[in-house]
Automatic annotation (TrEMBL), chains A, B, C, D, E, F:
<dbReference type="InterPro" id="IPR005000">
    <property type="entry name" value="Aldolase/citrate-lyase_domain"/>
</dbReference>
<dbReference type="InterPro" id="IPR015813">
    <property type="entry name" value="Pyrv/PenolPyrv_kinase-like_dom"/>
</dbReference>
<comment type="similarity">
    <text>Belongs to the HpcH/HpaI aldolase family.</text>
</comment>
<keyword id="KW-0479">Metal-binding</keyword>
<dbReference type="GO" id="GO:0005737">
    <property type="term" value="C:cytoplasm"/>
</dbReference>
<dbReference type="InterPro" id="IPR040442">
    <property type="entry name" value="Pyrv_kinase-like_dom_sf"/>
</dbReference>
<protein>
    <submittedName>
        <fullName>2,4-dihydroxyhept-2-ene-1,7-dioic acid aldolase</fullName>
    </submittedName>
</protein>
<keyword id="KW-0456">Lyase</keyword>
<dbReference type="Pfam" id="PF03328">
    <property type="entry name" value="HpcH_HpaI"/>
</dbReference>
<dbReference type="GO" id="GO:0016832">
    <property type="term" value="F:aldehyde-lyase activity"/>
</dbReference>
<dbReference type="GO" id="GO:0046872">
    <property type="term" value="F:metal ion binding"/>
</dbReference>
<feature type="domain" description="HpcH/HpaI aldolase/citrate lyase">
    <location>
        <begin position="24"/>
        <end position="240"/>
    </location>
</feature>
<dbReference type="InterPro" id="IPR050251">
    <property type="entry name" value="HpcH-HpaI_aldolase"/>
</dbReference>
Length: 257, 257, 257, 257, 257, 257
């Protein structure tokens, strides 16, 4: 079941979030019981080479692979798809124009302006003709626009109306900074939660997918309740931190008796 | 003989097309009897590091090296030249403004706005003074604008008139998608062939070089007849495919007697 | 003492200038008695991966680390900070609009639009809370706008007035090309020296830091006299050249007696 | 069907021979219609890191992966298995003692002395318990001893009798140098062909697998007739050479009409 | 406090165990609350390059760094020290002769035969003269011989008597295979536990350090009770597994309410 | 003129000494006015991959390239030649048996046992037939045995008599440690200088080449007087140190007036 089909079925999907640009680390992360893996090129360390190689690592696990591009790097959105990504997340889509540029890079004509050349992605996908790849890709690959500023929220309906935009991804830390006008960073800032819920609601009403980053696992139930179905979590640093606490806790308990 | 001199002499020049971002693979490809090697950063996997290192691999073979940049990444056009490239191919030059930005990144003042700093390119070139490098580079390095959409074709004369644009490179797969409004991908689509010929003709009339990607070798004679002189072919995948067919064919013939 | 504090104290600060994208080479360069190290992504070979890894090499030496981004790659300015850079140098800031985009990428709201996510930078910095990182970063990290063309010089006062721009960095080679309308490259071109001095003066009057690249060490005293305090020099190539001359000179003297 | 099962069924198996230490190049090679891929660490450029990453590339294609280690590097034989290799080829096994050391590194006790720790290999294999991995590995992974000198040929029966040695791999170029006492290198040297046939015959009589490198495809039928079933061919250089000849041949034919 | 001092003070020391040959992954692992980090070149994926770069990552955290070399690769023991390692663990030290070779590679004359050349290790260590480095290294760096077979156990007293061997490291999985003559792999095999305890006891009686790998945290208290003070645990795979269980557990609990 | 020819002509040859495993750094070092470049795998950081790629960097400069292997790693001696090295330096050749193993790995039969397979070296060399490569290599590539201990000195005549050993390379730091029985490290230790001179003398009498590492340039004249012709110096660290002193000295002088 592709990511598009899974989300269309309204299934909760939890993606790990890789920031270490190394295909072996990604291979180990993809072997954990997450539903998908995202490679982060904005705040994480992933780059062209690591994305190209790490996509294969995730594909070997049979899971979908998403790529978050740096701000405004729509050339990389197309490249991620050419390398085999199932979805791309674009940060700081703050206007309809941003959304249009993003969509153009993600979809073949006539929807967008994606250029032909799936050099790595097509062989990695399995047996498929060039013509079928052209015909099927626009539906199969997903474009998530990040909403994480006030202008983005104000432009939400317009962004949702752009052909080729498949979902909205909320960045709650940036949203809290925006909401507090730079005063605080708090991914569960209570004052913004109503707005976050509204984003999910309007996104679903527009027939598109709602996604969000979950830093504090305790917020998960609440955002699922709001309608978010794609939940991102589990950077290498976070998983290492949880794992070390758990492992050293068990060792120390054994030692101290 | 530089690439510029070779094309000025109207010689047919066939460039391999590397998509594997590894300088050793490029070294092996450059050792084959192609006339030049292009490093593809748009649909291929090449990136800053592989281009920097692979340019040296091609130079060791004595052949010209071209770089195709990702869409709109004119910062990289300048960098490719600073690393030692002889030419840059820019995809999706769909307007005169695109062409102007591209030319600006490729040529030193007063033609363009290329910034000074041939950190790797100048030592790799051989004995040359800074002043000579400044004076000679604009003529020696070539800027190829890709024409692969309807708007690009409509803007062709304007693009050809931009100072610093040295040639037009046709992307036939994208052009077929554009021509069919997204319906088919076919690098030898008959309906567009008249237009492809017209591009070569007008490019030559403008005193510039006509280039094209040749996926199906059987089309080569026809495009040469149209006036194209720089022919791109031979990605690692394509060469592997042809070579394996040939080698395994000979082995199997020997076994089956 | 941070780079910001050091420059605020008007101390002459000499930064090495790394163009080799390799964290071990940077480690060796950072061990030399320079005051700081700059990683060059414009004309040097540094890229996302090498910057991510080399910043750690410089930090291990206890010195500040600066990153020069490619032209217009403000996405990378934010990333350099997320990786732990203390300052970013942006080339070809030729207008107030350029300066505003650069500042936006460097400073968190409300000054700019930098996105939250110091995945590597915060753990590398040492013990600090997310909230303190948000509050302190805008003052601690420095944005240097390169002035190296005539339009840039004409826009200088406007650039200096942009909130978030902390200093001006003069690129003397490009400036000489600009000043001579493409005729010569000469980092100590006498005709432009009055203007170079004026840049330093106006920058200091605006309460900002004046920086310049010093290719010929004999110019150092003069530019310090003009008010420049951050002096860049010492690419790997230049240091190798000076060092080999010195070492082989001593060996040959010993042999020839 | 594993490599062991395939050879036990007496099926002709043709392995490509990768010498480029890059997992993407290996991915492309593995996608060609060879039956298996060998990573060469002796004369090829493969090393620990490339083997670790390239094994995953071959596994993604569903084909067996073999590793040829450098001379005497039995530590690497164990490591190749820990990384997931299906077989190891050891060069210059010139004595029973050499064969014993090799076998010791390849098989768990009580057959050999392989150390426990399939850090990467076991997760890559799929669902299997530690205990099953221990029990099944000795049969599943194959140890090929290279016979390529006169002493090796003289020790052949002893080598074949070493528990844990699963097959003999003939290196015909070295064998020709040995046979001619250093005078010629000729992988199809007629004088040695009777001996080559004898190696296959005695290997099969001992119930083990006979393998050989095939440089000239025209020899394939003859060596299959001798009883060799694992045939190695198709280095990147050879495949590039065959492929370029084929592709440029077609292009030139089209151009010349 | 150095690793040698820490163990001399009989402090329990828990080292993480890195198998991913990537210096950034090691940086993240070193930031977790382990007391030290070991880079595994035997069953893990570490190699010369990753060890060279990852040692710097661990040093940045202020923690000791150990390296486990492949079987018999005593050339690498010396290299690990030249790169800056504080200790080396050598697998399969099955005889006094093995121990002597290992010690020779670890200690400068007159104790051993380590060759001079701390190209990277000395600058990384901080201010120290060449003479002090020579004089102090033999005491500061630790050589751990792995005992994991019956012959090794039988030679234990001889191994402990070799000058330059500082400790014994028990590999419990291999030891269980050895103890069961290849029948089972079980790191807590009850039948061998008395022998494991005897190893610790005799090691401590010889004035040397006892170390062991702890796969199941519940065994930690027991082995500490036996006298082991250096406990290895926490490979990336294990920490990922514990961490994902913990994180996804919390998320799922939040969702299910 | 090859390295063998140059030394046969008794020309003083100064080789740089690279320890940074990065082909770009090596490219920059090779561009300096040294006569040759050595890649150090013993105390430097070079490894299989960096040697493979860096040999091409040195070859591009037209200079000979040498490789120093780790202690006892004769598998790597052969590989260095397969990658294109002109000479190999083997450390710690302390006995005739060591010298025989080294020579065996360096020379094709009948002199040695080098295995056939110049996968990279032959194409890099230029147009040459396989047969000529076989016939000419033994004379063209040079094997330098390092003499740096008392046993090595005692075995010197025997080592010099081994067919295939082309020269002796003195490691003066290790030799001083050996000479002082571990008490001091001093590459110009006066007490050993007579012995060092004797090594050169006996080496030349045997018709072989004398080489030595020169750390202090002031010793150069003296060792040339002894008969040494291949002088190694100029690690990246040393060249950086000399170069920074020279460059910053000039800058500071300019500033202080």
């Amino acid at each position: 079941m592709s990511l598009a089909e899974r989300l269309a079925a309204d299934e909760i999907t939890i993606t790990a979030w890789s920031g270490v640009p190394d295909s072996l680390t990604v291979e180990l992360l993809a072997a954990q019981p997450f539903d998908a893996v995202t490679l982060d090129m904005q705040h994480g360390g992933h780059h062209e080479d690591s994305v190209l190689r790490s996509i294969a690592s995730v594909q070997k696990s049979g899971k979908p692979v998403l790529v978050r591009i740096p701000v405004g790097r729509f050339d990389m959105a197309s490249r991620a798809l050419d390398f085999g990504a199932d979805a791309v997340i674009a940060p700081m889509i703050n206007s309809v124009e941003d959304a249009q540029k993003f969509a153009a890079s993600m979809k073949y004509p006539p929807v967008g302006e994606r250029s032909w050349g799936p050099t790595f992605g097509m062989p990695r996908y399995g047996k498929i003709s060039q013509q079928d790849w052209l015909t099927q890709s626009n539906d199969r690959v997903l474009a998530f626009a990040m909403v994480e500023t006030r202008p983005a929220f104000e432009a939400l309906d317009g962004i949702l109306a752009v052909p080729g935009i498949d979902g909205i991804f909320v960045g709650p830390s940036d949203f809290s900074i925006a909401w507090s006008n730079g005063a605080v960073v708090d991914s569960t800032l209570e004052e913004m939660m109503g707005t976050v819920a509204a984003i999910a609601e309007r996104t679903r009403e527009a027939g598109k997918f709602a996604a969000i980053y979950v830093i504090d696992p305790k917020i998960a139930g609440r955002v699922v309740g709001m309608g978010f179905r794609l939940l991102a979590t589990g950077s290498e640093g976070q998983v290492f931190s949880y794992g070390t606490a758990s492992l050293l806790g068990a060792i120390n308990q054994s030692i101290k008796g």
